[in-house]
């Protein structure tokens, strides 16, 4: 270094104000050290102090530092991160070079937030779009907080806020991902599942000492919990669970393999890849929703005609179908079934006498087996039009069909206008 012409500098990175001497000579200060907050002027988190030419010599050299760090609100185990001599340059430029490749993913996060933000107010699956929007925003927020060290030459008290923001964004990302996965596969007790993941994650974050560890755990614990959940749902043959499980396992495994480098650069590439996967899955859901909307429109036209015919009572032809209940196969007459409702992996059949039975199968399969008098008025409900008495419209736009047994079945918002015009109900 002494033979090189560029000037040299003393680089100091840490939560401190500092004054430096080299070989007994004062070379400068970064802020002003003091015994208390009033007497201290906080220094920059990453600073360089020029070393006068000729002050360094070959062999042993002595560096003396006076340090104080009393202005922050976090107490770190390792508040000083680097002390080195090198070619004089702005330290934020060196840091930004490390973060610069990952800043390219910011566009993906921003586009995802904008696209799903619009979907939150205008789309069909508003809750799903809102969660994906929040996931994108938390990823973008964490990227900006991480890269701020290379974008701003801030004084060291801001570093505490930066660490907290990184942990909070990582936690928000993980918990929104958990909510998205739980909502996607709809377990029997979604709030209980979500509460367990929240408690375990928050406890782990609080008990972990390092803030890098807190940020990693805040993200990794929800991801691994979702991986375990999707593995169980895959074993139960939930559609799409296996693909989610593989994606989450790969994400978690790479985060553990990369270790300390994960939160600096690789995190944002992995998050971008995971978000693209989630976007693709959401697009598939929206495509299915559109297909279902077309089917429901067809059902609406059928229901419109059926309700017209229902005003003139007539005897419906009897037909029998097979239902599987607790391992037994039984034949039942369809003219006694008033409506069917989806109940997880089962279908609940309601009968004219008020009784109910469970069938081990899907609502789609049941729809194909039932005669034309049965119409699907909602993604989770099929009604026997012979038992429909009236329709009532709710302020939200959905409707409620009243069955002759007194039961009430919801009607999808998409088919409400046609049904309402047909029966002239309010």
Automatic annotation (TrEMBL):
Pfam families attached to this UniProt entry: LytTR
Signal peptide annotation: none
The protein, known as: Response regulator receiver protein
Source organism per UniProt: Rhodanobacter spathiphylli B39
Membrane-spanning parts: 98-116, 128-145, 161-179, 191-209, 215-234, 241-260, 266-287
Keywords: Membrane, Transmembrane, Transmembrane helix, Two-component regulatory system
Gene3D superfamilies reported for this sequence: LytTr DNA-binding domain (2.40.50.1020)
Gene Ontology MF, one: phosphorelay response regulator activity
Ranges where the HTH LytTR-type domain occurs: 321-425
